Inverse folding.
């Protein structure tokens, strides 16, 4: 439910849009980076970070403060961010929500960023692209954001 009070920060709506635009940039970088040998940690990071930024964009649009999002309770925790966004009336399909939750452990514990000391099973990241895309497209409609697509330059070898 949207708060009837004005946001404390008059630029709150811009922060939400900026987060969503940045989420889309990370998603586009994920798509542009060639698939490597799974789990392809750079691509894993890009996609998970895109999801995190998109969820934060939604919460910022619902008058959450930047300070609240930076607390330990929400930092990098996709499950917590998804739960709060759902509580704030974000409508996602059950499969998208399940995909986001499935990525939480790896993202929250920085597996894509730092080598792990223990061995654990890791999802192949590519099947999660559709969930991230649906999330960002849903929020773009909700927040009235359009993305300017950059022309892809051919890579030289």
């Amino acid at each position: 439910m949207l708060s009837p009070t004005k946001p404390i920060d008059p630029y709150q709506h811009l922060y939400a849009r900026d987060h969503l635009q940045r989420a889309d940039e990370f998603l586009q970088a994920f798509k542009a980076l060639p698939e490597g040998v799974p789990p392809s940690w750079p691509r894993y990071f890009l996609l998970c970070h895109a999801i995190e930024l998109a969820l934060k964009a939604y919460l910022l649009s619902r008058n959450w403060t930047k300070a609240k999002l930076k607390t330990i309770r929400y930092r990098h925790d996709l499950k917590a961010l998804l739960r709060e966004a759902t509580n704030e009336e974000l409508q996602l399909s059950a499969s998208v929500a399940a995909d986001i939750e499935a990525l939480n452990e790896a993202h929250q514990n920085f597996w894509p960023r730092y080598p792990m000391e223990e061995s654990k099973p890791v999802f192949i990241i590519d099947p999660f692209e559709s969930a991230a895309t649906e999330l960002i497209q849903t929020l773009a409609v909700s927040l009235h954001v359009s993305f300017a697509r950059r022309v892809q330059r051919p890579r030289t070898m």
Observations:
- The first helix runs from residue 12 to 32.
- The helical segments are 12-32, 41-61, 66-69, 78-87, 94-102, 104-108, 129-143.
